[in-house]
Amino acid sequence: YANIVKFRPNAEEHTPQPLDRWLLARTAQLVDEMTDAYERFWTPELVRAFESYVDDLSNWYIRRSRRRFWDSDPAALQTLWLSLTEALRVVAPVMPFFADYLWRALRAENAPVSVFLDGWPESRERDETLLREVAEVRRVVELGRQARATSGLKLRQPLRRLVVQGAQLARSHEDEIRDELRVKEVEFGDVEAMEVRVKPNLRVLGPKLGKELAVVRAALAAGAWEQLPGGAVRVDGRDLGPEEVLVERSPREGWALAEDDGVTVAVSTELDDELLLEGRVLDLIHRVNTMRKDAGLELTDRITLTLPKTDADLLQHGDWIKREVLATEIGTDASADPVIARV
Fold this sequence. Notes:
Blueprint: H1 18-39, H2 43-64, H3 66-70, H4 74-91, H5 96-106, H6 128-151, E1 159-165, H7 174-181, E2 183-188, E3 194-200, H8 202-209, H9 213-221, E4 225-227, E5 233-235, E6 238-240, E7 245-251, E8 255-260, E9 263-268, H10 273-294, E10 303-308, H11 318-325, E11 327-333, E12 339-342
Parallel strand pairs: 1-2, 10-11
Antiparallel strand pairs: 1-9, 3-7, 4-5, 5-6, 8-9, 10-12
Helix pairs in contact: 1-2, 1-4, 1-6, 4-5, 6-7
């Protein structure tokens, strides 16, 4: 995308979006982590820090910025370039050939010819709050994907509702969560779509309670217990620690859920006609873009698209399909499969 628009680093002023500010803060964090690891001669930390950064860069910033790259957003392109070149400078001592090769491809015209001639990046202040927020958002998104996977629903299939419990820092990023998990509504609050069963840990409580275990066991089975902070439970006037009980959580019918370390995400799995139609549209977009790639089309090439008559109902979203596959015209005929033709 940068080559298509003839992007030049530092060529113009731009106003960074929150996602850009996050990547700049994340890159500053990488510089500090790598500097500390080098000073301690601790290779495992070097590897961990760089792998974590590449994951955040690839699976969050680039993934979330694809539309902006396509629209030639100068803030997105400049932020990505700046972060990549700074990351190369700190990884160069342990990956010299790789770093120098990429540096020569990415460097500005007035920059040194080698990454090893550009010096070490300075430590700078970073937005720690924003870093924590996005880390929480990524955690919610991952749990949402796990929940969808347990229900057997494709990630491309839109869903109606998602409920998040225990991730307060992610509240201000509702739009990102909605977009990443393809849900119409995102709510923050108690997950009521979950059934919780508590059983005694017999190996621990048996020796401790003796004959009284039967009373506690019956009260837990009847649901006569109270949740306490830290995973503890109060039942029959006794406070039981998290290691003394076994907690089983399962979704109610029509829901799927996943949880980890105090955060629970539940998604509605019920599909109506509107959601099913949108899911078919997304499947079509994916299929046509794969066809474009297999046909060797350039990113900017326009096409005409012909659909089978059995898919005529997808034309309700014709403008959406055109935009995503770069089609100038969409029609239908008696063919069995979609057909594309370069304009």
